[in-house]
Specification:
Length: 460
């Protein structure tokens, strides 16, 4: 990281005059190079169409590079090698790390000088990005939340009305038991989750009133991880019970989110309940319909999980998906213009619906019709929910997604930490050991706490 900072800061000095002029309003031209993970076309051909559409809207030449895999490592390798990009996609943890290393352009003044960025994006979203009062990135999309996804048809076949599920650990245990009894496929498991990363446990931890990530103990000012406290015991014991009774897919210890989603898909249906982003509720349904599977045969619905001790719910809202401007960017003003476009109705259309004339068409009366290709793309080209605060979904939402948004009020972000990967791997490692029975839950929690402190994730 020191080499990365040195290279990028040296190049930044050569561009200081251009960067310091961020508050000036000038005609923006030239090229904007973007490194992306999820934004843009679904294949190479559509990516070229996406570049052309974005370029025509911003009066820029847009060049988008999308690594085929291992994006996080590719990002750091390219920045470390001094490659110049005007916009790079990153998650909140990477954002914090790179901003603290001095590798990102301070965009605070640019944002303040832009009527679009100041007025079209909710102030609360900007507040979440502040590091010592400064902002070093703009938005790709508005983040949603992680909640319980359920196969409605499988539930009905097991005699369950999903709206009547008791929102307790015991209530869901009974659901899983009924699903198991109603399905004779030996490869089927009622529940699949991503234990190794412990990223989708919040709907269950809410039953004991715990929040994910790292929090501050108000009594002494020290940070700790709620999932590692003795208060979490009941949830870990519940997960172990599910595993012991073949209700939890044992592949949950090694599955990726892609594996989990494939098992939940209409083509597979090897699991009936997962915890996933709200947008994936709609994407599962949209993909099924695009593949010719009717709602009578497959439908994914959303629920907020278990009720908190005070009678509410507690879900995790995603940390921001961001576009930052590296300090060696060649066209900062062009990058700002792209960020402004993303924060408009038209830019949101591109990021969600896709390319007009390819993913969708608009008739003389302004009615939007999705093409067969557009339907297959699930109205998601990087932003199923665009960042523009007044965005209108011209073609409606994917089936089930609107229902999932009803629970957004219960969601909040976790504190952004620079060593999020250590948090996930440590909690996930001991979670696997406890649920599998390699160690007792008491021993696993004690070891989890010790390792989190040793690795500097928290203070106690």
């Amino acid at each position: 990281m020191k080499r990365l900072m040195a290279i990028m800061m040296a190049m930044a000095m050569l561009l200081a005059c251009a960067v310091s002029a961020g508050a000036e309003t000038t005609e923006t031209t030239g090229t904007v190079r973007m490194l992306v993970a999820v934004t843009g076309g679904k294949d190479d051909a559509e990516m070229r169409l996406f570049e052309e559409a974005l370029g025509a809207a911003t009066n820029l030449e847009i060049i988008i590079e999308k690594p085929a895999s291992d994006y996080d490592n590719v990002l750091m390798q390219k920045l470390g090698a001094g490659e110049s990009y005007d916009l790079v996609y990153m998650n909140a943890s990477q954002y914090l790390n790179l901003a603290q290393q001095g590798a990102l352009t301070d965009l605070t003044d640019y944002i303040a000088a832009s009527d679009i960025l100041s007025n079209n994006v909710p102030q609360s979203e900007w507040d979440d990005l502040k590091i010592d009062g400064r902002i070093y990135a703009g938005f790709n999309k508005r983040e949603c939340h992680v909640l319980v996804a359920l196969n409605k048809v499988m539930l009905e076949n097991a005699g369950i009305d999903y709206t009547q599920i008791e929102p307790t650990l015991e209530g869901y245990y009974e659901v899983f038991t009924a699903l198991r009894a109603a399905n004779s496929d030996e490869d089927f498991y009622p529940f699949n989750t991503i234990i190794s990363q412990a990223w989708d446990l919040q709907p269950w931890m809410s039953s004991v009133g715990l929040k994910g990530g790292v929090v501050v103990d108000e009594s002494d000012g020290l940070t700790y991880v709620p999932y590692a406290t003795d208060a979490s015991y009941e949830v870990w014991a519940w997960l172990k019970k599910l595993y012991d009774e073949d209700l939890l897919d044992p592949a949950s210890f090694v599955d990726s989110t892609t594996d989990m989603r494939n098992k939940m898909s209409a083509a597979s249906q090897l699991t009936a309940v997962t915890v996933d982003w709200g947008a994936w509720i709609g994407l599962h349904n949209a993909n099924a319909l695009a593949g010719g599977v009717s709602e009578d045969d497959y439908a994914i619905v959303a629920m907020p999980g278990t009720m908190t001790p005070d009678g509410s719910y507690s879900l995790r809202k995603g940390s921001a998906s961001l576009f930052a401007v590296p300090v060696n960017a060649q066209n900062v003003e062009g990058a700002i213009k792209v960020l402004e476009y993303f924060a408009t109705q038209e830019g949101g259309n591109l990021l969600s619906l896709g390319i007009e004339g390819y993913d969708y068409t608009v008739d003389a009366d302004g009615n939007v019709t999705m093409t067969e290709i557009g339907l297959a793309h699930g109205k998601d080209h990087g932003a199923p929910v665009p960042i523009y605060k007044d965005f209108v979904f011209l073609a409606g939402l994917n089936p089930g997604f609107e229902e999932s948004l009803e629970y957004l009020e219960y969601a909040s972000i976790e504190t952004i930490i620079s060593n999020e990967s250590d948090y996930k791997s440590i909690v996930g490692k001991w979670a696997v050991s406890m649920i599998r029975g390699d160690v007792s839950i008491e021993e696993g929690l004690a070891s989890m706490r010790q390792e989190l402190v040793t690795m500097g994730v928290c203070e106690k």
